[in-house]
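Researcher: Here's the sequence for the chain we discussed earlier.
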Amino acid sequence: MLNRFLSFIKKHALNSEGEKWLLAVSGGVDSMVLLNLCHQAGFNISVAHCNFNLRGEESDADAQFVKETCSRLKVPYFEKHFDTKSHASAHGISTQMAARDLRYAWFNELLEEQNLDQLAVAHHAQDNLETILLNLARGTSISGLRGMLPKSGNIVRPLLGFERDEIENFAKQESIQWREDSSNASDNYKRNYLRHQVIPLFTQLNKGFYSTFENTLEKNLEVEKVFQEKINALKPYIEKAEGGYRFSKDQIIQSGIGAFQLSELLKPFGLNYEQSKELLLALEGISGKIFTTKSHQFTVDRAYVFITLHQPNKLESFLIEERQGQFSLSGQTYKVERLNGNIKLDRNSAKAFLDFSKLIFPLEVRTWKEGDHFFPLGMKGKKKLSDFMIDQKIPLNLKDQIRVLTSEGNIVWVIGYRIDNRYKITEHTKEVLSISPN
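Model: Thanks. This is the structure I predict for it:
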């Protein structure tokens, strides 16, 4: 088994000369065999053991067993105790998920603190099969069908090519001691149910099931690589735009990609498969449809879909008093000044020059709302603000960032775009209110 172990490591380039591994050792047969093989191979190893305090004295006995084994083998040993149930309760997750989060966070800390290169875990072929079956039950993509990889980031899985029976038989032949986790006998856990009730049916149908399964994984891995190449070729479709990113509706439609490919392309922005199906339908519909994820907002405009950070509009209106010298808005500071009427006008729309005598203080800065209207400078008559924004070709994804300055409820300035004609400076203006970015 040692030769196969070393061949697997070489085939998948899991260990470079001089690398230092941190082994995750629970005390069970899989991790104890991993420890034994690494020790026989002469690898530079340290051991980390997690005590999750879930099985009382049994958990403490596991920790003591691993510690004594490492002492005998002269292997550096690290141990940490966790209040797993409290962590699970505080974060609203299962005990198993809490244990996973806690141990991997600690493992990463150890890797950095001890200057270690890789984390080696004892996942084997049956663990991989259980993972794929769970993925199928929950719903999965191509990556979920190829299972765990021998190397993923800084995690290596040197036993992935071995079946559980092989590992246990080797342990018995080599007189390797291990601890049995009593919770492994219970079918209350999903993995245990698969291990005890489901997987034996597959092995009854096909005695060489694990060999067939390994071949299937290799095929799926090739398929995933081809698929990823296609997704990478589509990435240039997403281009930077004001406030975020965008992609052309026509370009996506003409590419003929399906919802799954679109969901993988937009995965960094949090769009899931079901939303991708709806988004594809919306591309050929009326503009204005909005999709939100935890992190981003997708706005279907006339020719493009805009992607911006999902930041719900939380601006509360605020007042500007008559003698106030400045105010801040969306991270920008504005300078407020009173000037005499004889000034040279600056046509920069980022600034406002208003007839002071026509303003009633306090002025109010607020978010625009449906039904807002004003008299845009340079235009005749009244116009709905929503129509004005269309005329200005303001993308839908930026409309919720529009703010207005009002006087007694009347819009004085669509900030950054246009003042109201009623408040413009005339030959009769004696005093000007100037507002400009500072």
